[in-house]
């Protein structure tokens, strides 16, 4: 019997910064949908070096964050982190000290990437203080939850 | 007449977002403007009409890096209104929690954001490729700070365990004991950090700052104290508004703080170090002497050494607090709300954090004022640049920009506390 896979869902964001709350909402909802499956949820805000601890030793880590790349608000981007650096501009947003792309490259330099890392970035419409989700991002939310759950189930059921 | 223009659109490694604009003409600086977007203004309005018990948790969301600082200043202000004092082991737990946050914040800045400047790297990522063991040490130190916050505060990010009057739940002695070995490792690694950063080369640059920090009769002030300066200020926290004012500057939606009748001042690690050196733990004082950094330190570039010394102090004191901890009988000092105005000031990692609240007899917040450290330092940052740029005009363009960025990073300007994307524009006419 093989060892159960370590799966981490990591939400990035600040609930009081508009669409920046998205990452947190997605992983909370995905956790409910995946009740009963061996999935751990982490939240990260402010300091992205915490991502290295959040995905330590994971077989699959999925990070969800709001991004600003110039696409229409609510656009969902998905990246499988591989050999090449992430498009820096994509995850270089926001209110986080070291951004997600930098945390990925820092982990790569230190040999601390998880076995497999998937990033979901949802194009933010508004990042002002205290506002609710923009309608576009609110509409994209269930779709991201769905896609993320599909990733997790495929990984749990798939071969090593 | 010599005109030159430099524009840089993104200033890396500052926690947040804002803009800096410098204009020069014939080798003279003619304008320096630091533009900052400031969430506390929003939070002040957001607090009105809420219960006094919500203040610590809501204001904690202003900053992803220093939520504990906001919780502590807010709690202190509310406790002043309620007429209660949090003492003994509950106070020790708050002290410990706060030291955990200092460690996290300082180690993030020293290793990930500030050190690359001195070693000639564009970022911690390049530094990690050449010096992985050093960067790992920084991350481990920071992680132990996180663990203190997680054990006392309930979780690492946005601790949920703090409330007006104390905590929802206090850790057992065993839970705190689990930190002992980590804190001992951290203390040694922090001493190594002091020696490492003291070996950097520092630009020859000093300013005659007015340093402002809390001072406590026995401790290196963090939770409470009188507000002191090296130029004669010595006031109780409730007198803050009589001596400090916030000025609206037209080019920024942030407010600039100044001492009434005098002008700019500086809060943060250098101010604390200079005013309270005698209250640092003996080990931290010894390390400062060993590397030859003694007060008064007036070179903002050397703040990286001061942060490292404060981190050593934090591990040293945290270890003592953990070893001497006895679980209190009750996690909270209970009290009923009453109408009044209360003031709180604590030492956030970046400096003095002032809160003022007025509540009614039902405990509903009628008015809130929050002055974060970075907005207090804005004027000092601008003044540094007024002096620093003319001294470095012979540098090539890109290096001058790089140096200006460094001069701002000296202050570890905070993410959501005070800034919103720092874009740098230097215009030479």
How many domains of chain B?
A: 1
User: How are the strands ordered across the major sheet of chain B?
Assistant: 1-14-2-3
Strands in their spatial order, largest beta sheet of chain A: 2-1-3-5-4
CATH level-1 class of chain A: Alpha Beta
Description:
The complex is a heterodimer of chains A (160) and B (429). By secondary structure, chain A is of the alpha/beta class. Chain A has a single domain (7-157), classed as Rossmann fold, CATH 3.40.50.1450. Chain A has helices spanning 22-33, 50-54, 88-91, 100-110, 135-157, and strands at 7-12, 39-44, 60-67, 76-80, 116-123. Chain A has a 5-stranded mixed β-sheet. In chain A, helix 1 packs across helix 5 (135-157). The longest helix of chain A has 23 residues, at 135-157. The radius of gyration of chain A is 15 Å and the shape is globular. The termini of chain A are close together. The model of chain A has no long low-confidence stretch (mean pLDDT 86). Chain B has 429 residues and is an alpha+beta fold. Chain B has a single domain (39-425), classed as Cytochrome-c3 Hydrogenase, chain B, CATH 1.10.645. Chain B is 45% helix and 18% strand. Chain B contains 15 helices and 14 strands. Chain B has helices at residues 39-47, 55-60, 67-82, 88-119, 124-130, 132-153, 173-177, 180-198, 240-243, 269-276, 282-290, 303-323, 373-391, 397-409, 415-418, and strands at residues 5-8, 18-25, 28-36, 162-163, 166-167, 212-215, 226-229, 234-235, 244-248, 255-259, 340-348, 351-359, 365-371, 423-428. A 4-stranded mixed β-sheet of chain B has the order 1-14-2-3, with helices on one face. In chain B, a hairpin with a 2-residue loop joins strand 11 (340-348) and strand 12 (351-359). Chain B is globular, with a radius of gyration of 21 Å. The interface between A and B is medium-sized, with 26 and 36 residues.
């Amino acid at each position: 019997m093989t060892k159960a896979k370590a799966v981490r869902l990591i939400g990035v964001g600040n609930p009081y910064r508009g669409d920046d709350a998205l990452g947190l909402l997605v992983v909370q909802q995905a956790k409910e949908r995946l009740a009963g499956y061996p999935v751990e949820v982490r939240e990260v805000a402010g300091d992205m070096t915490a991502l290295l601890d959040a995905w330590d030793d994971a077989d699959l880590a999925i990070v969800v964050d709001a991004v600003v790349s110039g696409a229409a608000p609510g656009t969902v981007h998905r990246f499988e982190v591989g050999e090449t650096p992430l498009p820096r501009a994509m995850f270089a947003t926001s209110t986080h000290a070291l951004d997600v792309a930098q945390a990925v490259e820092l982990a790569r330099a230190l040999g601390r990437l998880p076995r497999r890392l998937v990033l979901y970035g949802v194009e933010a419409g508004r990042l002002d203080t205290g506002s609710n989700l923009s309608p576009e991002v609110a509409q994209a939310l269930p779709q991201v939850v769905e896609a993320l759950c599909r990733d997790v189930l495929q990984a749990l059921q798939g071969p090593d | 007449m010599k005109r030159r223009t430099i524009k840089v659109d993104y200033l890396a490694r500052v926690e947040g977002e804002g803009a800096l604009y410098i204009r020069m003409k014939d080798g003279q600086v003619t304008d320096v403007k630091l533009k900052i977007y400031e969430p506390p203004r929003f939070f002040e309005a957001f607090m009105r009409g809420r219960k006094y018990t919500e203040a610590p948790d809501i204001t904690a969301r202003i900053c992803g890096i220093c939520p504990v600082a906001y919780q502590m200043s807010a709690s202190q202000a509310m406790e002043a209104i309620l007429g209660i004092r949090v003492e003994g082991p509950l106070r020790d737990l708050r002290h410990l929690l706060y030291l955990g946050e200092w460690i996290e914040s300082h180690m993030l800045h020293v290793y990930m954001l500030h050190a690359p400047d001195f070693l000639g790297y564009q970022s911690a990522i390049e530094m990690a490729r050449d010096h992985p063991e050093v960067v790992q040490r920084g991350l481990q130190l920071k992680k132990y700070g996180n663990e203190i916050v997680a054990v006392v505060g309930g979780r690492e990010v946005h601790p949920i365990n703090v409330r007006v009057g104390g905590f929802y739940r206090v850790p057992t002695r065993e839970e705190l004991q689990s930190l002992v070995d980590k804190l001992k490792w951290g203390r040694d690694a922090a001493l190594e950090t002091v020696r490492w950063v003291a070996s950097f080369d520092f630009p020859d640059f000093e300013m005659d700052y007015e340093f402002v920090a809390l001072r406590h009769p026995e401790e290196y002030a963090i939770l409470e104290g009188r507000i002191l300066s090296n130029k004669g200020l010595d006031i109780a926290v409730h007198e803050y508004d009589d001596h400090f004012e916030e000025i609206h500057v037209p080019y920024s939606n942030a407010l600039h703080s100044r001492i009434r009748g005098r002008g700019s001042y500086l809060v943060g690690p250098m101010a604390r170090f200079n005013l309270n050196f005698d209250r640092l733990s003996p080990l931290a004082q010894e390390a400062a002497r060993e590397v030859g950094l003694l007060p008064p330190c007036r070179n903002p570039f050397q703040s990286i050494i001061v942060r490292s010394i404060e981190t050593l102090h934090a591990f040293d004191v945290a270890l003592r607090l953990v070893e001497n901890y006895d679980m209190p009988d009750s996690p909270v000092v209970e009290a009923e709300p009453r109408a009044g105005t209360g003031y709180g000031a604590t030492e956030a990692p970046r400096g003095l954090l002032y809160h003022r609240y007025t509540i009614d007899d039902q405990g509903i917040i009628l008015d809130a004022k929050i002055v974060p450290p970075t907005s207090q330092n804005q004027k000092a940052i601008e003044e540094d640049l007024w002096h620093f740029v003319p001294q470095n005009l012979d540098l090539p363009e890109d290096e001058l920009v790089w140096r200006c960025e460094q001069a701002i990073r000296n202050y570890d300007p905070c993410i959501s506390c005070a800034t919103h994307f720092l874009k740098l524009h230097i215009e030479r006419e």
